Amino acid sequence: MSGLYLSKGLYPTEFLEPTIEFIKRVQQPDGSIPWFESGYADPWDHVESAMGLSIGGEYAAAENAYRWLKNIQLDDGSFWAAYKDGEIDNKERRETNFVAYIATGVWHHYLITENLEFVRELWPTVVKAIDFVVGLQTSHGDIHWAVDADGKPKEDALVTGCSSIYKSLECAYNLSVILDEERQDWLIAREKLGKALLHHEKTRFDRTWESKSRYSMDWFYPVLTGALPKKEARERLLARWDEFVEDGMGCRCVSDQPWVTIAESCELTMALLAAGMESRAVNVYSWLHQWRLEDGSYWTGYQFSEDLLWPNEKPTWTAAAILLAADALTDHTPAAYLFKEIRLLSAEKPFTQQVV
Prior knowledge:
Layout: H1 13-26, H2 43-55, H3 59-72, E1 82-84, E2 87-90, E3 93-95, H4 96-113, H5 116-134, E4 146-148, E5 153-154, H6 159-178, H7 184-199, H8 201-204, H9 216-224, H10 230-239, H11 241-244, E6 245-246, E7 250-252, E8 259-261, H12 262-274, H13 278-286, E9 301-303, E10 308-309, H14 316-330, E11 343-345, E12 353-355
Antiparallel strand pairs: 1-2, 3-4, 4-5, 6-7, 7-8, 8-9, 9-10, 11-12
Helix pairs in contact: 1-14, 2-3, 2-4, 2-14, 3-4, 4-5, 4-6, 5-6, 6-7, 6-9, 9-10, 9-12, 12-13, 12-14, 13-14
């Protein structure tokens, strides 16, 4: 199917129900959500999938997913890069944006459910995770992308990863406010990180490896997560639109490869909404359902020079991205704004959100 045009108030419940059921079906009894059946789970994509469950009203399943992270968290607050069948699958590193994303997920779940008791339960996990991440921030504001197996920082930073952390720090701070445990230090860390993303992208990121600017996520993630003001956000998206966007298909993963990916296209949809480019967002999202299967899942991507669906995978996090973008387009849940604008709670009036 193609040509699904969404707007506020037009969330396609019946159409997306199989997509929600697909994620729920792949979820393991321990709460983990692997990429696909018999695959591994990584903390970031696991949280993305849990957010899809929350949008779908599967609150118990979503909470079970966050409890899995609580149960596997290391003493220093981090998580290993991947897990499979109840065991660590990648013990080479712990990535900071993976670790921080639990704050985004818990805040997203709270926005939808208003379940404050669940927030209180997960709060110690969030605190340890965010403190671990902030502890890896440099004096320039950027945050090391990972630590190795021995806990030694891998001393470089990723635009996409730090952009994701920027949103997670917003969510973590808001959680601290609703629990009356305001973490002003997280707000300061967020401000420093935002300045690094806005003013020092060329000097503080990709210092020890080849630039990752050919990846579309580096292009739109600073927009998606609110690191750029709206004017700069629009200019950034328009400047490289023709490099990354294939009309009628979606967003390329990499500018120099003929491969569009569904998850990146969904995230671009939300970035366009954040930049105030709604008509483009509606169009991009409308192209994506030609990659949908009967069970509600979506292929990872399409290699259009060879007319090949590749890889032969239907990731849970791609399905979740479809749900997140649909929510953002239709304002279906109270969390629909999360990737469209920044809202920081006021510590003096904790239930008054300040749009930044």
